[in-house]
Specification:
3 helices
Length: 86
């Protein structure tokens, strides 16, 4: 299943917590012109480095399908960020 929602929790050193919900599909639709350019650039890079573009796209798709349920936390000093992909 393609990820539907990315939740970002940030707790800066000031102590005030910030929670953001980012819907994946609307953001992908807004950024779709850039996504097309990125895919074309990736295909050109695959041809330059003699990598099978179909295999590279298939691998990228498998990574995308594996993202739901992923959680990771970043900490630097007293600032903590938790990203959850659903």
């Amino acid at each position: 299943m393609i990820p539907q929602l990315v939740t970002v929790h940030v707790r800066p050193c000031s102590g005030r917590r910030v929670r953001m919900y980012i819907p994946v599909v609307p953001v992908a639709l807004i950024l779709s012109p850039l996504l097309v350019l990125a895919v074309l650039g990736g295909c050109i890079a695959c041809l330059v480095f003699r990598i099978n573009p179909g295999g590279a796209l298939r691998g990228a798709g498998q990574v995308l399908w594996a993202l739901p349920g992923t959680r990771f936390e970043m900490e630097q000093g007293r600032t903590v960020a938790l990203v959850s992909i659903r």
